[in-house]
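An example makes the point: we print one protein in full, the chain in one-letter code, the fold tokenised, without further comment:
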Amino acid sequence: ADMDGTAAASRASLCARRLTFACRVCVLVSLLLITPPFHGVATAVLLVGPLALAPAGYELSLLFACASVFLSVASWMTRRSGGDSAKGPVTDGKRAVRWLANGITVLALSASILVAGFECLLAVPYIVEPTGPAGDRVVVVERNVLLAGYGDVYLVSGGFGVGRKIASYSADDGYSPMDNGTYALEWRGSEPHFTAYGKIGRASCRERV
């Protein structure tokens, strides 16, 4: 019976270590996605049918962050179910390393959630009508911060997949051309021409192709 209990504790310990490793990998990926070298990935637009995911990279970062929390809880529960023997002897050095690793993981996870969450709250994607002759779609992602507004225009070839940025505009007083319907989209063959404009005396917009 003792041997069976020891074997079960050993299996629980191994499973908990694997879950902890997977948790830290998820945190690392979540953190990498919000760093400057991955800015293009973080702000990418992904169109799947009627659903526009933007900023897709930041949303993916949040997904990995949530996965890391789930794996961390699963690891803790596994260690608890294995009993104290599953942990084995822990020296002061090992305990210090474990606390340091856990602290770094928590800091990285917090940074990922704060940055990615803030970006996701700011960004509002719109799928603009009409559809292009070849099924291409235009997606506009607006961000309004205090008295400033910004918009990025993306072209999604075939109406599915990752968008390519083709234009941008800015607006004063936090004005949103998309919310107020002050925009126009025309197709000249397969080439889209998007225009955003404001109301006189209220805001001004600038569109760049």
Summary: Residues 24 and 101 are 9 Å apart (CA to CA).
